[in-house]
Amino acid sequence: MDINEATAKAIAAERSAAGLTIKELSEKSGVPERTLIRMLKNERDIKVTQIAQLAEVFGINPHELIEEAEKFIARAARNEARERESRITDDLIGRIAAHPEDYDAAANTDPNARLEAETPDD
Fold it and tell me: I want to staple 62 with a disulfide (CB 3.0 to 4.6 A). Which of 55, 73, 82, 92 is the partner?
């Protein structure tokens, strides 16, 4: 996620929290409605002046929108890292399950494993 997309998400969240329609936000901020729609869809870059205009409507400082955008970026990075770790873990488990003899796992070196496998559970 880039800063533009994240800023669009921050603006959308603020707009929702303020209970404003896109048309109302456009009228209050002076940012043309079509421009605002394209910004929120991440179809155009968001200018600093537009961030300032929107922040004023929300009653916050422009840097607060950017800080919220940075939180979206950090959250997306954490989610990507979790997904990557999950894929690696799943891959490793699959490899071990397919060829347990290739790994020095406790189950492979347990001297009682065969005896336990032969003993029925009661």
Answer: 55
